[in-house]
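SUBJECT: protein chain
CONTENTS: sequence, structure tokens:
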Amino acid sequence: MVAASIHQSAPAPAARRTPARLTPLARGWYGRAHLVASASRSTRGARAPHGADAGRPPHTRPRAVRGRGHRAAARGGVGRARRVRAARLVSLVSDLPELVERGLRGPALPRRRALAVRASAVLGLLAAWSAASGLVIVLKLFNPIFLPGPWVVAGALLDLAARGELATHVRATLERVAVGFATGAALAVGLGVLAGVVRPVRNVVEPIVELLRPVPPLAVLPLFIVWVGIGEPSKIGFITYATFFPMFLTTVHAVGQIDPVLLRAARSLGARRLVLFRLVVLPAALPDVLTGLRLGIALSFFVIVISEFIGAEHGLGFLINDGRNFFLVAQMLGAAVVLGLLGWAGNGLVRLAERRLLRWQHPS
């Protein structure tokens, strides 16, 4: 007579609560991990019996055999559940930067709504400017010439455009910015890629860059005037010097942070240096390089005003300095507004190139 053992089932695991502070996406990962773990526990099977009981149906086997199988399955199921939870935890930790970024940014707005929000911000700024100017006129806080309204600034710009002076000044500024920025970008990106790929070049170039980078561009402008004169070369060289450093540093960082696993994988597949640079190094470094170009083009419009203050006969910086000499505040503000619009357009061109070149980052 076979002694029947009391069937002991594995204790039910305690219910786990999803942490309330996780983002919705993180809570989804957390919940899926426990669903998979629960499914693995519920679908685990008993260990197959041996000997004479191997071919018998489960309901005809002795209870002792079934009990041993269930206990062994319970121990194995707990181990599998732990492994599943560990794997899901590793996946959650690896996705944590994306979860945090999406949680901070929030859901993306539709294109039309985003444009409407930006237009509303600009209109709000103009409304605040108009209100401040009108308040000065009504309350007579000080001379209204010190804070002209947007309508006064627009009138001054229209007057300059009617005389043909505005187009001349804008063209001179754009030519200097284009040549200076292009020269600085070519030097910074080329030397930055070379320094990022070749270690001896980086060891030679990086100390020199770190020595010159803290020197303010304004302190170097008199040297450019002494070396190359007061004409166009000094202004272009000044823009090149000022924009070189941020673009160089971002390029070196972009090349240096490429995953070595990608490089080793490409080499193991037989990729040579040129193919490795074109298919691995350049696509991986391009996002940070374009970010450096955006910084450089904004800085070029910033420093062109300083260079056009000295020895320039045309340009928006000259227009601002001329307004200062003759106390034309509306002209000064108008030239500053045009500079801001040109800088915004330049940044937009770089962003457009970024979306075209990095379609794998901007699928929409």
